UniProtKB/TrEMBL annotation:
Gene3D superfamilies: 3.10.20.30. This is 2Fe-2S ferredoxin-type domain-containing protein. It comes from the Bacteria. InterPro entries: 2Fe-2S_ferredoxin-like_sf, 2Fe-2S_ferredoxin-type, Adrenodoxin-like, Beta-grasp_dom_sf. SUPFAM superfamilies: 2Fe-2S ferredoxin-like. Residues 1-101 form the 2Fe-2S ferredoxin-type domain. Its cofactor is [2Fe-2S] cluster. GO terms for molecular function: 2 iron, 2 sulfur cluster binding; electron transfer activity; metal ion binding. Belongs to the adrenodoxin/putidaredoxin family. The keyword Cell membrane does not apply. Keywords: 2Fe-2S, Iron, Iron-sulfur, Metal-binding, Ubiquinone.
Length: 101
């Protein structure tokens, strides 16, 4: 799937991934602002992204654990997700994620 990350510097980076988490893909591609400090176990929120409003159904809803974690982070919105909790699949093709500040 083709995934677009918009970094904190407002640069769009298009990357391609087949499987694994969006966080791992972002880290592999050096996407600025996605650190993945906890290794993808939903306990650091350094992989916080905002999904485009009209693409929320692609990303799906955050789990309760994820929501609890997000609440501790700044700039949380109804479009927030922790991208380590999103598995890459063909269904995500074209999704645009803005890295949270
Ligand atoms: Fe730590 Fe996603 S990488 S919460």
């Amino acid at each position: 799937a083709k995934i677009t990350f918009i970094t904190q510097d407002n640069i769009s980076v298009v990357v391609e991934g087949q499987s694994g988490s969006l966080m791992a893909l972002a880290v592999e591609n050096g996407i600025k602002g996605i650190d993945g400090d906890c290794g993808g176990v939903c306990s650091c929120a350094t992989c916080h992204v905002h999904v485009q409003a009209d693409q929320m159904q692609l990303a799906g809803e955050a789990s309760e654990i994820e929501k609890d974690m997000l609440e501790l982070d700044d700039n949380v919105s109804e479009f927030s997700r922790l991208c380590c909790q999103i598995e890459i699949s063909d269904a995500l093709d074209g999704i645009v994620l803005t890295v949270a500040n």
